[in-house]
Every structure is written in C-alpha cells, then in structure tokens.
Design goal:
The chain is α+β, with helices and mostly antiparallel strands and 159 residues long. The protein has 4 helices and 3 strands, in the order αββααβα.
Length: 159
C-alpha cells in the first residue's frame, strides 16, 4: 500500500498530493562544475528540478527543449508544477521518458485559464512542432471522423 507513485505515461496527471510537495535533491547552481555529465539522466533531472521551482501551479502546457533548441516534448497539466516535479523524480520512468529527461536542457511554460484550453493548445502545438518524444497516432485526444448513413433496406429501424 505504501508503494512509491509511478507515472508511466507523461500525458497522465498524477493524483493530487499534499500541497507541501518537495523537490528531489539535486545540486544547486553554485558556479562549481556540475556533478552530472551533460546529456545524462542526472543532468536532465537537475535541469527539470530547477525549472520546476519556477513553474506555475495553474493549468497549462509545457515544452521540453534540447541542447540545439529543438522541442523534444509538449505536454499539458492541470498543475504545471506538480507535473514537472514528476519528471525530476529519480525512479519510475520507462526508457523512452528517461531518454527524453536526459536530453532536456530547458523548459517553457504557458499558463491557460482552464484544462480544456490547455488540451487544445497542446494538440495544436504537437501538430505544428511535431516533437520527437510525442508518440504520433497514440494521441487519444484526437477524435476520428465517423460517417453514419441510413441504409435504404432498413425500413424497420429507427434510422
């Protein structure tokens, strides 16, 4: 019952936790050489933890960018701060997410007035930017078009 919480898919929000959530221990920027090699999982976690301190608690969209400025991932959250903190945790990430965290060098946040607005903004940014770590065709937020026609042979149906 006391297992640590895991968030396998970044599209899913974690259950609400106490508001006194703390960030994982990562080295602060002190001017000393970093403890982690650039591009390592530890370096990515440290970058994310630093940006998490600045993240708003409102709903919105976040973008993870790599060293060359390319957008790696676009995600949405009902609380940006809680969502980004989840990436800074040391365990519970599958290999795809761990690679994304390791490649992250910066984050950008866009606050929205509602979760619905965040959902629409996320969908538009994914279509426009085509981030490497957003899995295409698995986006359950897109709706297929269905054509329903009336067949002339079905005279007894309600159609």
């Amino acid at each position: 019952m006391d297992e640590p919480k895991r968030n396998i898919e970044p599209e899913l929000d974690l259950p609400d936790e106490e508001d006194d959530q703390t960030l994982p221990d990562v080295p602060e920027e002190t001017g000393e050489p970093e403890q982690f090699a650039p591009g390592s999982l530890g370096a990515g976690r440290a970058v994310i933890a630093r940006y998490a301190k600045l993240a708003p608690t409102s709903p919105g969209v976040y973008r993870m960018t790599g060293a060359a400025g390319e957008v790696l991932y676009v995600g949405k959250a009902k609380s940006l701060k809680k969502r980004v903190i989840a990436y800074a945790r040391p365990t519970g990430h599958d290999s795809r997410i761990a690679r994304m965290i390791a490649a992250t060098t910066a984050l950008e946040f866009v606050s929205t007035s509602s979760e619905t607005e965040a959902l629409l903004l996320e969908a538009n940014l994914i279509k426009r930017l085509r981030p490497r770590f957003n899995v295409l065709l698995r986006d359950d937020k897109s709706f297929p078009y269905i054509l329903i026609t009336r067949r002339s042979r079905c005279r007894n149906s309600a159609w």
